[in-house]
Design goal:
Diaminopimelate Epimerase, Chain A, domain 1, alpha+beta, 17-stranded mixed β-sheet, about 45% strand, 17 strands
Length: about 280
């Protein structure tokens, strides 16, 4: 088969609450950082690729560091992301499953070291995110002639949070895109989360993700930003269960200044990608 279609490389496909990723063990493969954005665009595209929200490469940690490994992470459009909560849970579970790291380990991201605890018996992973920064509450912005109140937090990547009465009534792609590209967040833009509060420990969240440029089934750093901002406003308990648009539950726990994200992470399939067919070399 490989002779017929040319060179192939192994990959893993994982999903965390519907947020899906292609993962490549790059420790020996040696794909260069300069080529990674193009690989993300090719591998993540629908119909002509594997299709996913993002692509990440597992690489060896720098010699002498306390890290078990580092990752290089890219959105489906080839843009680099500093952090992704659901991807961190997926890579943590895979690293444990294939023997790169133990049940408790630390890996390096652009946002800093990420601490991981794998619960194989529950098929769940808990990660400690980097401490939130740039938190701003009760801000306003105007979109298409309407004024919206929003909150903001950077939980590894920037997130705007907008509280709504019913998330089902929101045109996520239209409003999310308008906020994402709003001049207040220029030039980098922001992810946008729409939250419905059912109770102090129960929320529903829909997220528009930059880089994907659409709604995703779940966003780990997004639900964490929601909890960080609403908890500071006194609207939520320290631990909440958040239902994502994919119907899954993510748990976000605040302990002091630390934020923990816990939820499912599953290997959906593994295979070989044929580089010539994908326009890669």
């Amino acid at each position: 088969m490989s002779k017929m279609f040319g060179k192939s490389i192994p990959f893993y496909k994982m999903q965390g609450c519907g947020n899906d990723f292609v993962i490549i063990d790059n420790r020996e493969l040696g794909v260069s950082v300069s080529e990674m954005p193009r690989w993300a665009q090719k591998l993540c595209q629908r119909a002509f690729g594997i299709y996913a929200d993002g692509l990440l490469f597992i690489e060896n940690a720098p010699e002498g560091s306390d890290l078990d490994f580092v990752w290089q992470f890219y959105n489906s459009d080839g843009s680099r992301a500093e952090m992704c909560g659901n991807a961190s849970r997926c890579v943590g579970r895979l690293a444990h499953a294939i023997g790169i790291a133990g049940e408790e380990h630390v890996f390096g991201s652009d946002a800093g070291p990420i601490r991981v605890r794998v619960f194989p018996e529950f098929e769940e992973v808990k990660v400690q995110l980097t401490d939130p920064t740039d938190v701003a509450l009760k801000q306003t912005l105007e979109v298409d002639g309407e004024t919206y109140e929003y909150h903001f937090a950077n939980t590894g990547v920037p997130h705007a949070v907008i509280q709504v009465a019913d998330v089902k009534d929101v045109d996520i792609k239209k409003l999310g895109s308008a906020v994402r590209y709003h001049e207040k967040f220029a030039p980098a833009g922001t992810n946008v989360n729409f939250v419905q509060i059912d109770d102090n420990d129960s929320l529903i969240v829909r997220t528009y993700e930059r880089g994907v440029e659409d709604e995703t089934y779940a966003c780990g750093t997004g639900v964490s930003a929601v909890q960080v901002t609403l908890n500071r406003l006194g609207l939520t308990d320290a631990a909440v269960r958040i239902r994502t648009s994919g119907g899954e539950i993510l748990k976000v726990i605040i302990e002091g200044t630390s934020v923990f994200l816990q939820g499912g992470a599953e290997l959906t399939f593994a295979g070989n990608a044929y580089l010539e067919s994908l326009g890669l070399d």
